[in-house]
Amino acid sequence: MVTNIASYTVIPNQPTPKGRLWLSDSDLAEHSPAYTPTIYVYKPKHNHHDVIERMRTSLSDILVYYYPVAGRLCWIDECGRMEVDCNAKGVTLLEAETTKTLNEYGDFSPTQPIKDLIPTIDYTQPIEELPLFLVQLTRFHGDQSLAIGVAISHLLCDGTGAIQFINSWAKLARGDTLAPHEMPILDRTILKFPLSPLAPRFDHPELKPPPFILGTFDCITEQKTTAASLKLTSEEVEKLKKKASDQSQKDGSRPYSRYEAIAAHIWRCASKARELDDNQPTLVRIIADIRSRLNPPLPRNYFGNALARTVTTKCYVGEIISNPFSYAARKIRDALNLLTNEYIRSQQDVILDQEKIDSLRGFFFGQGQSRSSDPYFGSPNIFIVSWMSMSVYEADFGWGKPVYFGEGFVSPYDTAWIVQSPEGDGSVIVSMHFQIEHMQLFKKLFYQDI
Protein backbone atom coordinates (compact mmCIF):
# COMPACT_ATOMS: atom_id res chain seq x y z
CA MET A 1 0.00 0.00 0.00
CA VAL A 2 1.29 3.44 -0.99
CA THR A 3 0.40 6.47 1.15
CA ASN A 4 0.90 10.05 0.03
CA ILE A 5 2.60 12.14 2.71
CA ALA A 6 2.77 15.53 1.01
CA SER A 7 2.22 17.32 -2.27
CA TYR A 8 4.23 20.33 -3.44
CA THR A 9 3.82 22.73 -6.33
CA VAL A 10 7.31 23.65 -7.53
CA ILE A 11 7.86 26.77 -9.63
CA PRO A 12 11.04 28.21 -11.19
CA ASN A 13 13.13 29.99 -8.56
CA GLN A 14 13.75 32.94 -10.90
CA PRO A 15 11.54 34.90 -13.30
CA THR A 16 11.24 33.07 -16.64
CA PRO A 17 10.09 34.19 -20.11
CA LYS A 18 6.33 34.49 -20.57
CA GLY A 19 4.27 33.86 -23.67
CA ARG A 20 3.21 30.87 -25.75
CA LEU A 21 5.54 28.15 -27.05
CA TRP A 22 4.62 26.94 -30.53
CA LEU A 23 4.33 23.15 -30.80
CA SER A 24 5.56 21.48 -33.97
CA ASP A 25 3.55 19.12 -36.15
CA SER A 26 5.67 16.32 -34.72
CA ASP A 27 4.59 17.36 -31.20
CA LEU A 28 0.90 17.42 -32.13
CA ALA A 29 0.49 14.61 -34.63
CA GLU A 30 3.14 11.99 -34.01
CA HIS A 31 2.42 10.98 -30.47
CA SER A 32 -0.18 10.21 -27.86
CA PRO A 33 -1.37 13.26 -25.94
CA ALA A 34 -1.18 11.20 -22.78
CA TYR A 35 1.70 11.30 -20.29
CA THR A 36 4.72 9.02 -20.50
CA PRO A 37 5.16 7.22 -17.16
CA THR A 38 8.60 5.92 -16.17
CA ILE A 39 10.18 4.77 -12.93
CA TYR A 40 13.69 4.94 -11.44
CA VAL A 41 14.67 2.76 -8.47
CA TYR A 42 17.58 3.56 -6.13
CA LYS A 43 19.39 1.71 -3.35
CA PRO A 44 21.36 4.40 -1.48
CA LYS A 45 24.20 3.13 0.68
CA HIS A 46 23.43 5.70 3.35
CA ASN A 47 20.29 7.27 4.75
CA HIS A 48 19.65 10.68 3.20
CA HIS A 49 17.38 12.83 5.35
CA ASP A 50 17.34 15.76 2.91
CA VAL A 51 15.98 13.81 -0.07
CA ILE A 52 12.72 15.66 -0.62
CA GLU A 53 14.20 19.08 0.08
CA ARG A 54 17.07 18.40 -2.33
CA MET A 55 14.57 17.38 -5.00
CA ARG A 56 12.37 20.45 -4.42
CA THR A 57 15.27 22.90 -4.54
CA SER A 58 16.96 21.40 -7.58
CA LEU A 59 13.65 21.00 -9.43
CA SER A 60 13.00 24.70 -8.86
CA ASP A 61 16.48 25.38 -10.26
CA ILE A 62 16.14 23.26 -13.41
CA LEU A 63 12.76 24.79 -14.26
CA VAL A 64 14.54 28.09 -14.87
CA TYR A 65 16.26 26.48 -17.89
CA TYR A 66 13.33 24.25 -18.87
CA TYR A 67 10.65 26.83 -18.14
CA PRO A 68 8.01 25.41 -20.59
CA VAL A 69 7.82 22.34 -18.32
CA ALA A 70 6.31 24.60 -15.65
CA GLY A 71 3.68 25.90 -18.08
CA ARG A 72 0.26 24.66 -19.19
CA LEU A 73 -1.29 23.60 -22.47
CA CYS A 74 -3.71 25.98 -24.12
CA TRP A 75 -5.96 25.80 -27.18
CA ILE A 76 -5.53 28.55 -29.77
CA ASP A 77 -8.83 28.90 -31.64
CA GLU A 78 -7.54 31.18 -34.37
CA CYS A 79 -5.07 28.59 -35.64
CA GLY A 80 -6.74 25.42 -34.33
CA ARG A 81 -3.64 24.20 -32.52
CA MET A 82 -2.37 23.56 -29.05
CA GLU A 83 0.53 25.51 -27.61
CA VAL A 84 2.29 25.75 -24.26
CA ASP A 85 1.48 28.79 -22.15
CA CYS A 86 4.75 29.54 -20.38
CA ASN A 87 3.05 30.90 -17.26
CA ALA A 88 5.30 29.31 -14.58
CA LYS A 89 2.32 27.72 -12.80
CA GLY A 90 4.70 24.94 -11.77
CA VAL A 91 4.97 21.17 -11.59
CA THR A 92 3.78 18.67 -8.99
CA LEU A 93 6.13 16.85 -6.60
CA LEU A 94 4.61 14.12 -4.42
CA GLU A 95 6.16 12.50 -1.37
CA ALA A 96 4.96 8.99 -0.51
CA GLU A 97 5.83 5.79 1.32
CA THR A 98 4.91 2.18 0.77
CA THR A 99 4.39 -0.66 3.24
CA LYS A 100 6.20 -3.02 0.86
CA THR A 101 9.90 -3.72 0.73
CA LEU A 102 11.93 -3.27 -2.44
CA ASN A 103 12.11 -7.04 -2.99
CA GLU A 104 8.33 -7.39 -2.86
CA TYR A 105 8.06 -5.46 -6.12
CA GLY A 106 9.98 -8.16 -7.99
CA ASP A 107 11.45 -7.15 -11.36
CA PHE A 108 9.30 -3.98 -11.57
CA SER A 109 7.44 -5.15 -14.68
CA PRO A 110 4.41 -2.86 -15.08
CA THR A 111 1.61 -4.00 -12.75
CA GLN A 112 -0.85 -2.16 -10.54
CA PRO A 113 1.61 -2.04 -7.59
CA ILE A 114 4.17 -0.40 -9.91
CA LYS A 115 1.59 2.11 -11.15
CA ASP A 116 1.06 3.18 -7.54
CA LEU A 117 4.67 4.43 -7.53
CA ILE A 118 3.94 6.86 -10.39
CA PRO A 119 1.72 9.97 -10.22
CA THR A 120 -1.83 9.54 -11.47
CA ILE A 121 -2.99 12.05 -14.07
CA ASP A 122 -6.41 13.62 -13.49
CA TYR A 123 -7.58 14.26 -17.05
CA THR A 124 -10.83 15.77 -15.76
CA GLN A 125 -8.88 18.89 -14.82
CA PRO A 126 -9.07 21.78 -17.30
CA ILE A 127 -5.94 21.77 -19.46
CA GLU A 128 -5.16 25.25 -18.14
CA GLU A 129 -4.66 23.66 -14.69
CA LEU A 130 -3.10 20.29 -15.56
CA PRO A 131 0.66 20.20 -14.82
CA LEU A 132 2.84 19.00 -17.69
CA PHE A 133 5.23 17.22 -15.31
CA LEU A 134 4.50 15.24 -12.15
CA VAL A 135 7.00 13.30 -10.06
CA GLN A 136 6.58 11.04 -7.03
CA LEU A 137 9.28 10.13 -4.51
CA THR A 138 8.38 6.90 -2.69
CA ARG A 139 10.33 5.38 0.19
CA PHE A 140 10.28 1.58 0.48
CA HIS A 141 9.71 -0.13 3.80
CA GLY A 142 12.66 -1.56 5.70
CA ASP A 143 15.66 0.28 4.24
CA GLN A 144 16.77 3.44 2.44
CA SER A 145 15.58 2.34 -1.03
CA LEU A 146 13.73 4.94 -3.09
CA ALA A 147 11.62 5.09 -6.23
CA ILE A 148 11.14 8.15 -8.41
CA GLY A 149 8.04 7.85 -10.58
CA VAL A 150 7.79 10.34 -13.43
CA ALA A 151 4.89 11.39 -15.66
CA ILE A 152 5.64 13.93 -18.40
CA SER A 153 3.34 15.14 -21.17
CA HIS A 154 4.28 13.57 -24.49
CA LEU A 155 3.20 16.77 -26.22
CA LEU A 156 6.08 18.45 -24.41
CA CYS A 157 8.91 16.13 -25.47
CA ASP A 158 9.94 12.68 -26.64
CA GLY A 159 11.92 10.12 -24.65
CA THR A 160 15.26 11.70 -25.53
CA GLY A 161 14.03 15.08 -24.30
CA ALA A 162 12.58 13.60 -21.12
CA ILE A 163 15.82 11.80 -20.23
CA GLN A 164 17.78 14.97 -21.01
CA PHE A 165 15.55 16.93 -18.59
CA ILE A 166 15.75 14.33 -15.79
CA ASN A 167 19.53 13.97 -16.10
CA SER A 168 20.02 17.75 -16.03
CA TRP A 169 17.79 17.99 -12.96
CA ALA A 170 19.79 15.23 -11.25
CA LYS A 171 23.05 17.01 -12.07
CA LEU A 172 21.85 20.15 -10.29
CA ALA A 173 20.67 18.04 -7.36
CA ARG A 174 24.24 16.69 -6.99
CA GLY A 175 25.51 20.27 -6.73
CA ASP A 176 26.95 20.46 -10.26
CA THR A 177 26.22 23.07 -12.92
CA LEU A 178 25.09 22.66 -16.52
CA ALA A 179 27.69 23.20 -19.22
CA PRO A 180 26.75 25.46 -22.17
CA HIS A 181 26.22 22.47 -24.47
CA GLU A 182 23.76 20.98 -21.96
CA MET A 183 21.37 23.94 -22.12
CA PRO A 184 18.11 22.92 -23.80
CA ILE A 185 17.09 24.24 -27.21
CA LEU A 186 13.43 25.13 -26.61
CA ASP A 187 12.49 26.79 -29.90
CA ARG A 188 10.33 24.38 -31.93
CA THR A 189 10.14 26.62 -35.01
CA ILE A 190 13.30 24.99 -36.35
CA LEU A 191 10.91 22.14 -37.21
CA LYS A 192 8.39 24.47 -38.81
CA PHE A 193 7.41 23.45 -42.31
CA PRO A 194 5.48 25.41 -44.99
CA LEU A 195 2.03 26.59 -43.92
CA SER A 196 0.43 25.02 -46.99
CA PRO A 197 1.07 21.26 -46.92
CA LEU A 198 2.89 19.97 -49.95
CA ALA A 199 1.86 16.91 -51.88
CA PRO A 200 3.57 13.81 -50.44
CA ARG A 201 6.66 12.85 -52.40
CA PHE A 202 6.58 9.23 -51.19
CA ASP A 203 3.95 6.54 -50.69
CA HIS A 204 4.23 6.63 -46.86
CA PRO A 205 3.00 3.15 -45.84
CA GLU A 206 3.66 4.11 -42.21
CA LEU A 207 0.63 6.42 -42.36
CA LYS A 208 -1.70 3.69 -43.64
CA PRO A 209 -3.67 1.23 -41.46
CA PRO A 210 -1.69 -1.90 -40.56
CA PRO A 211 -3.02 -5.34 -41.51
CA PHE A 212 -5.52 -7.12 -39.27
CA ILE A 213 -5.78 -10.84 -38.54
CA LEU A 214 -6.94 -12.65 -41.68
CA GLY A 215 -10.72 -12.77 -41.88
CA THR A 216 -11.23 -9.76 -39.61
CA PHE A 217 -11.65 -6.06 -40.27
CA ASP A 218 -11.03 -4.65 -36.80
CA CYS A 219 -9.17 -5.46 -33.57
CA ILE A 220 -12.19 -6.51 -31.48
CA THR A 221 -10.93 -10.09 -31.23
CA GLU A 222 -7.55 -9.05 -29.81
CA GLN A 223 -6.55 -10.39 -26.41
CA LYS A 224 -5.45 -8.30 -23.44
CA THR A 225 -1.74 -7.76 -22.94
CA THR A 226 0.65 -8.35 -20.08
CA ALA A 227 4.26 -7.30 -19.57
CA ALA A 228 7.51 -9.11 -18.78
CA SER A 229 11.13 -7.99 -18.39
CA LEU A 230 13.50 -10.20 -20.39
CA LYS A 231 17.26 -9.78 -20.12
CA LEU A 232 19.74 -10.46 -22.89
CA THR A 233 23.35 -10.74 -21.79
CA SER A 234 26.06 -9.08 -23.85
CA GLU A 235 27.03 -12.56 -25.09
CA GLU A 236 23.46 -13.24 -26.23
CA VAL A 237 23.27 -9.89 -27.98
CA GLU A 238 26.52 -10.64 -29.83
CA LYS A 239 25.18 -14.08 -30.80
CA LEU A 240 22.13 -12.47 -32.39
CA LYS A 241 24.26 -9.92 -34.22
CA LYS A 242 26.62 -12.62 -35.47
CA LYS A 243 23.71 -14.86 -36.48
CA ALA A 244 22.21 -12.08 -38.62
CA SER A 245 25.50 -10.79 -40.01
CA ASP A 246 26.98 -14.18 -40.88
CA GLN A 247 23.92 -15.01 -42.96
CA SER A 248 24.06 -11.63 -44.74
CA GLN A 249 27.76 -11.64 -45.68
CA LYS A 250 26.97 -13.53 -48.85
CA ASP A 251 25.23 -10.45 -50.31
CA GLY A 252 27.93 -8.05 -49.12
CA SER A 253 25.81 -6.34 -46.46
CA ARG A 254 27.47 -4.56 -43.56
CA PRO A 255 27.11 -6.20 -40.12
CA TYR A 256 23.75 -5.67 -38.46
CA SER A 257 23.39 -3.38 -35.45
CA ARG A 258 22.22 -4.41 -32.00
CA TYR A 259 18.78 -2.94 -32.65
CA GLU A 260 18.37 -4.62 -36.04
CA ALA A 261 19.33 -8.03 -34.65
CA ILE A 262 17.28 -7.78 -31.43
CA ALA A 263 14.23 -6.40 -33.25
CA ALA A 264 14.41 -9.20 -35.82
CA HIS A 265 14.60 -11.75 -32.99
CA ILE A 266 11.56 -10.26 -31.24
CA TRP A 267 9.57 -10.20 -34.50
CA ARG A 268 10.37 -13.83 -35.30
CA CYS A 269 9.54 -15.03 -31.78
CA ALA A 270 6.26 -13.10 -31.80
CA SER A 271 5.36 -14.54 -35.20
CA LYS A 272 5.97 -18.07 -33.92
CA ALA A 273 4.24 -17.57 -30.56
CA ARG A 274 1.01 -16.29 -32.11
CA GLU A 275 0.72 -19.45 -34.25
CA LEU A 276 -0.93 -17.59 -37.12
CA ASP A 277 -1.44 -18.68 -40.72
CA ASP A 278 1.71 -18.57 -42.87
CA ASN A 279 -0.12 -16.22 -45.26
CA GLN A 280 -0.86 -13.71 -42.51
CA PRO A 281 0.61 -10.25 -43.35
CA THR A 282 2.74 -8.78 -40.58
CA LEU A 283 4.62 -5.51 -40.01
CA VAL A 284 6.99 -3.95 -37.52
CA ARG A 285 6.32 -0.34 -36.57
CA ILE A 286 9.34 1.79 -35.61
CA ILE A 287 9.62 5.32 -34.22
CA ALA A 288 13.08 6.79 -34.85
CA ASP A 289 14.87 9.84 -33.48
CA ILE A 290 15.41 12.26 -36.38
CA ARG A 291 17.79 14.74 -34.72
CA SER A 292 20.74 13.48 -36.74
CA ARG A 293 18.72 12.41 -39.80
CA LEU A 294 17.61 15.88 -40.87
CA ASN A 295 19.74 18.16 -43.04
CA PRO A 296 20.86 20.30 -41.35
CA PRO A 297 20.70 18.13 -38.22
CA LEU A 298 18.89 19.32 -35.12
CA PRO A 299 20.98 20.23 -32.08
CA ARG A 300 21.51 17.22 -29.85
CA ASN A 301 19.96 19.07 -26.94
CA TYR A 302 16.77 19.97 -28.86
CA PHE A 303 13.95 19.66 -26.32
CA GLY A 304 10.74 18.54 -28.00
CA ASN A 305 9.41 15.71 -30.12
CA ALA A 306 11.84 14.92 -32.94
CA LEU A 307 10.66 11.53 -34.14
CA ALA A 308 9.42 9.97 -37.37
CA ARG A 309 7.52 6.79 -38.10
CA THR A 310 8.48 3.95 -40.38
CA VAL A 311 7.27 0.38 -40.97
CA THR A 312 8.71 -2.70 -42.57
CA THR A 313 7.53 -3.51 -46.06
CA LYS A 314 4.65 -5.94 -46.29
CA CYS A 315 5.60 -9.55 -45.74
CA TYR A 316 4.06 -12.69 -44.29
CA VAL A 317 4.43 -14.69 -41.10
CA GLY A 318 5.60 -17.71 -43.08
CA GLU A 319 8.41 -15.67 -44.64
CA ILE A 320 9.61 -14.32 -41.29
CA ILE A 321 9.69 -17.80 -39.74
CA SER A 322 11.05 -19.90 -42.63
CA ASN A 323 13.67 -17.57 -44.09
CA PRO A 324 17.13 -17.13 -42.55
CA PHE A 325 17.33 -14.83 -39.54
CA SER A 326 18.95 -12.13 -41.68
CA TYR A 327 15.72 -11.84 -43.70
CA ALA A 328 13.87 -10.20 -40.78
CA ALA A 329 16.93 -8.09 -39.90
CA ARG A 330 17.09 -6.84 -43.50
CA LYS A 331 13.42 -5.83 -43.32
CA ILE A 332 14.15 -3.82 -40.16
CA ARG A 333 17.17 -2.14 -41.77
CA ASP A 334 15.27 -1.26 -44.94
CA ALA A 335 12.54 0.40 -42.87
CA LEU A 336 15.10 2.54 -41.04
CA ASN A 337 16.91 3.41 -44.27
CA LEU A 338 13.70 5.00 -45.57
CA LEU A 339 14.09 7.81 -43.06
CA THR A 340 16.15 10.23 -45.12
CA ASN A 341 15.86 14.00 -44.79
CA GLU A 342 13.58 14.15 -47.84
CA TYR A 343 11.35 11.30 -46.62
CA ILE A 344 10.98 12.81 -43.13
CA ARG A 345 10.06 16.22 -44.53
CA SER A 346 7.52 14.64 -46.86
CA GLN A 347 6.00 12.76 -43.92
CA GLN A 348 5.80 15.92 -41.84
CA ASP A 349 4.07 17.75 -44.69
CA VAL A 350 1.09 15.41 -44.60
CA ILE A 351 0.99 13.91 -41.11
CA LEU A 352 -1.08 16.56 -39.33
CA ASP A 353 -4.63 16.41 -40.69
CA GLN A 354 -7.92 17.76 -39.33
CA GLU A 355 -8.93 14.38 -37.87
CA LYS A 356 -5.83 14.33 -35.68
CA ILE A 357 -6.41 17.94 -34.60
CA ASP A 358 -10.05 17.14 -33.72
CA SER A 359 -9.11 13.98 -31.80
CA LEU A 360 -6.36 15.81 -29.93
CA ARG A 361 -8.81 18.47 -28.85
CA GLY A 362 -11.36 15.77 -27.97
CA PHE A 363 -8.85 14.03 -25.74
CA PHE A 364 -8.43 17.00 -23.44
CA PHE A 365 -11.99 18.29 -23.68
CA GLY A 366 -13.54 14.83 -23.44
CA GLN A 367 -12.09 13.61 -20.13
CA GLY A 368 -9.15 11.68 -21.50
CA GLN A 369 -10.86 9.55 -24.13
CA SER A 370 -8.66 7.62 -26.52
CA ARG A 371 -7.65 9.17 -29.81
CA SER A 372 -9.75 7.55 -32.52
CA SER A 373 -7.13 8.43 -35.15
CA ASP A 374 -4.45 6.26 -33.59
CA PRO A 375 -4.33 2.91 -35.44
CA TYR A 376 -4.28 -0.25 -33.38
CA PHE A 377 -0.87 -1.85 -33.85
CA GLY A 378 -1.13 -5.17 -32.08
CA SER A 379 -1.19 -8.71 -33.49
CA PRO A 380 -0.30 -9.60 -36.21
CA ASN A 381 2.06 -6.60 -36.04
CA ILE A 382 4.42 -5.29 -33.38
CA PHE A 383 5.86 -1.96 -32.24
CA ILE A 384 9.57 -2.12 -31.30
CA VAL A 385 11.17 0.87 -29.56
CA SER A 386 14.86 1.35 -28.78
CA TRP A 387 16.00 3.38 -25.78
CA MET A 388 19.48 1.82 -25.91
CA SER A 389 21.18 5.08 -26.85
CA MET A 390 19.61 7.00 -23.96
CA SER A 391 21.70 7.62 -20.86
CA VAL A 392 18.91 6.63 -18.49
CA TYR A 393 21.26 5.60 -15.67
CA GLU A 394 22.90 9.02 -15.37
CA ALA A 395 20.01 10.21 -13.20
CA ASP A 396 22.07 10.34 -9.99
CA PHE A 397 20.45 12.79 -7.57
CA GLY A 398 23.24 12.40 -5.03
CA TRP A 399 22.48 8.93 -3.71
CA GLY A 400 23.90 6.87 -6.55
CA LYS A 401 22.78 5.77 -9.99
CA PRO A 402 19.45 3.96 -10.39
CA VAL A 403 19.50 0.19 -10.15
CA TYR A 404 16.42 -0.01 -12.35
CA PHE A 405 14.75 2.09 -15.03
CA GLY A 406 11.63 1.23 -16.97
CA GLU A 407 8.23 2.29 -18.24
CA GLY A 408 5.31 2.33 -15.83
CA PHE A 409 2.37 1.07 -17.87
CA VAL A 410 1.23 -1.95 -19.88
CA SER A 411 0.81 -1.13 -23.55
CA PRO A 412 -2.63 -2.05 -24.94
CA TYR A 413 -0.94 -3.55 -28.00
CA ASP A 414 2.09 -5.73 -28.65
CA THR A 415 5.14 -3.57 -27.97
CA ALA A 416 8.78 -4.14 -27.07
CA TRP A 417 11.00 -1.52 -25.39
CA ILE A 418 14.74 -2.22 -25.55
CA VAL A 419 16.90 -0.43 -22.96
CA GLN A 420 20.45 -0.95 -21.78
CA SER A 421 20.80 -2.77 -18.47
CA PRO A 422 22.03 -0.98 -15.32
CA GLU A 423 25.23 -3.07 -15.29
CA GLY A 424 26.56 -1.16 -18.30
CA ASP A 425 28.21 -4.30 -19.66
CA GLY A 426 26.46 -4.46 -23.02
CA SER A 427 23.49 -6.45 -21.79
CA VAL A 428 19.97 -5.15 -22.45
CA ILE A 429 16.49 -5.43 -20.98
CA VAL A 430 13.55 -6.07 -23.30
CA SER A 431 10.31 -4.94 -21.71
CA MET A 432 7.86 -7.07 -23.64
CA HIS A 433 4.16 -6.21 -23.78
CA PHE A 434 2.37 -9.12 -25.40
CA GLN A 435 -0.95 -10.93 -25.45
CA ILE A 436 -1.51 -12.88 -22.25
CA GLU A 437 -2.52 -15.96 -24.21
CA HIS A 438 0.84 -16.12 -26.02
CA MET A 439 3.30 -14.65 -23.51
CA GLN A 440 4.55 -17.95 -22.05
CA LEU A 441 5.40 -19.39 -25.45
CA PHE A 442 7.03 -16.11 -26.48
CA LYS A 443 9.30 -16.15 -23.41
CA LYS A 444 10.28 -19.75 -24.11
CA LEU A 445 11.13 -18.99 -27.74
CA PHE A 446 12.92 -15.76 -26.80
CA TYR A 447 15.74 -17.70 -25.14
CA GLN A 448 15.42 -20.99 -26.99
CA ASP A 449 15.87 -19.43 -30.44
CA ILE A 450 19.06 -17.52 -29.64
Which helices and strands, and how do they pair?
Layout: E1 2-10, E2 20-22, H1 25-29, E3 35-42, H2 51-65, E4 72-76, E5 81-85, E6 91-98, H3 112-115, E7 133-139, E8 146-153, H4 159-173, E9 225-232, H5 234-248, H6 258-274, E10 281-282, E11 284-289, E12 307-311, E13 315-316, H7 317-322, H8 325-337, H9 341-350, H10 354-365, E14 382-386, E15 404-407, E16 415-420, E17 428-435, H11 436-448
Structure characterization notes:
- This protein has helices spanning 25-29, 51-65, 112-115, 159-173, 234-248, 258-274, 317-322, 325-337, 341-350, 354-365, 436-448; strands spanning 2-10, 20-22, 35-42, 72-76, 81-85, 91-98, 133-139, 146-153, 225-232, 281-282, 284-289, 307-311, 315-316, 382-386, 404-407, 415-420, 428-435.
- It is α+β, with helices and mostly antiparallel strands and 450 residues long.
- The longest helix has 17 residues, at 258-274.
Helix fraction, binned, reads 25-40%
Total strand segments: 17
**Beta-strand proportion:** 15-25%
Unreliable spans: 367-373
DSSP summary: helix tally: 11
Largest beta-sheet details:
6 strands, mixed
Cα-to-Cα separation, first versus last residue: 39 Å
Q: Within the largest sheet, what's the order of strands? A: 1-6-7-8-3-15
Radius of gyration: 22 Å
Overall mean pLDDT stands at: 90
Helix/strand order: EEHEHEEEHEEHEHHEEEEHHHHEEEEH
Overall, the morphology is globular
